[in-house]
Amino acid sequence: MKPQFMSSNLHPMLNVAIKAARAAGAIINRAALDVEAVRISQKQVNDFVTEVDHAAEKAVIDTLLGAYPGHGILAEESGTQYGAKDSEFVWIIDPLDGTTNFIHGFPVYCVSIALSVKGKIEQAVIYDPTRNDLFTATKGRGAYMNERRIRVSKRTQLKDSLISTGFPFRPGDNFKAYMLMMAEVMQRTAGLRRPGSAALDLAYVAAGFTEGFFETGLSIWDVAAGSLLVTEAGGLVGNFTGEAEFLEQRECLAGAPRIYGQLVPILGKYSKFAGAGDKAAVRQATATEDADPADAASEGDAGAAQDSADKDESAPL
């Protein structure tokens, strides 16, 4: 059994966040014992919200506001409904990141809690209740996993790197552009993984388990805590063009510095902030992908048959 992570050396606000994350984790673990009994309602197609989300979020908010009633709250399920509305201190909460995994009994999900002070992330906790893994960071004090200091991977070559990602799954997502992006990364790396929890993906970059991570369509509560873990572990995080102000831009790239530097030129052209020329090239590439493969195949067969006939006609008798 790993020790309860409460230490006088930690920032008091971080200790409260740890307590909140563990409270949510206990609720999630109890529910996981009988996940089929969890009633499911749908927010959007493939984007589930469960009773567990709400119960875990309430446990987090009650713990945080019990200690700091003057702080603000920005939570995935309840938004800014709770907490002070004008505080410089805002807790950013995802009570269960990886809900779809949880519903299926696939054990990759976590609780994510970050504290923003005057718009900057200063405290971070990501708790994986299935493994009892606790990732923490305080700005300027480094990143930790279960009380051990963590650092990003030392690998420097993309070809040796393991990269994690998240697939688009919401209506309106640009699947074709993503498939091109994924193909470009996949061909240059040792492997591409899709675990299904962006917050945990970022924690794994911080711990050096993967060399990088990229995903589009993410909300601030998906990336707030993980982004501080990455930077405190010596990594870089930003949007696809490498700009650091990414928290509310719905695209996230993180990695060990050398790997991050190699991913930006690959992914930058797919960014919403890419230049006009890059955007045009991506549009053209996705338009090519739009051609029906069956039509292309039949056209190709017809063309091949005609080529064969032409050759036969020109062949000497």
TrEMBL record:
| Compositional bias segments (type: Basic and acidic residues) | 308-317
Q: Where is this region: Disordered?
A: 282-317
Q: What is its EC number?
A: 3.1.3.25
Q: Which UniProt keywords apply?
A: Hydrolase, Magnesium, Metal-binding
From the UniProt record, list the reaction(s) this protein catalyses: a myo-inositol phosphate + H2O = myo-inositol + phosphate
Instruction: Please list the residue ranges that the record marks as compositionally biased, kind Low complexity.
Output: 284-307
- Per UniProt, Mg(2+) binds at E76, D94, L96, D97, D222
The protein's matches in Gene3D superfamilies, at most eight in alphabetical order, are given as: 3.40.190.80, Fructose-1,6-Bisphosphatase, subunit A, domain 1
- Recorded GO terms, molecular function? inositol monophosphate 1-phosphatase activity; metal ion binding
- BP term (GO), one: inositol metabolic process
- CDD domains listed in its UniProt record: IMPase
Does the keyword section mention Metal-binding? yes
Cofactor(s) demanded: Mg(2+)
Record SUPFAM superfamilies: Carbohydrate phosphatase
* Pfam families, per database record: Inositol_P (PF00459)
For this chain, the family text in UniProt reads: Belongs to the inositol monophosphatase superfamily.
What name goes with this protein? Inositol-1-monophosphatase
